[in-house]
Write the structure tokens for this entry.
Amino acid sequence: MTREQWAWVEGLIRDVSRPEEGNIFARRVFQWDLAVRQFQKVEHERIVVGTPTDVDFEAHARCLQGLLTIGNALVMASREFQPEELARFGIRREEIGAYVEALEQSFREWHHGLSEEYLDKVRQALFSGEA
Amino acid sequence: MARPEYIARIHAAKYDLRFCGRAEKPEMLRRYKAALAEACRISGYAAPELEAAIARDFGEWVKQERLPKLPLNPRGI
């Protein structure tokens, strides 16, 4: 067989496996979506409107890191698919990216390197109308 | 202390971003970024400082606004 013939056969194999790859990718996105939603509920109850402990903050950081790792991998993997392929599963690439950015925003809020003393000064300026 | 209106606008945009459906996320993210950029311009603080400084106030705002509790699943989460 020539190189062109091998390439043709490899192309056929890719075509056959493509729907399965799409299914697997979509399933991962939906599972991750569900995990993010559950995380946000617990985050809201424990961190946002609750009285978080050190244990809450440690678990919060670990969960965020895990979700961000998967989310970033999904953003990269989504580039392997055409928008029409993703649309078949009701997925848009920018939705995954927006989810990741929202998680990063949460990380910046609660796991930063700024001191409480400095943040108190910022709050004082913001809420007293000085800023 | 009084909460400036521009901070309340960030809180509202953040709430929408967190709890909207997947299809709405890109638009809600755009609105959140716009509200944050406006607050940075008014206050003179950088975005990371603002986000960290007002994170706890978001919870207060949620309570004051009496926003609906998030639906919990049967396992309590």
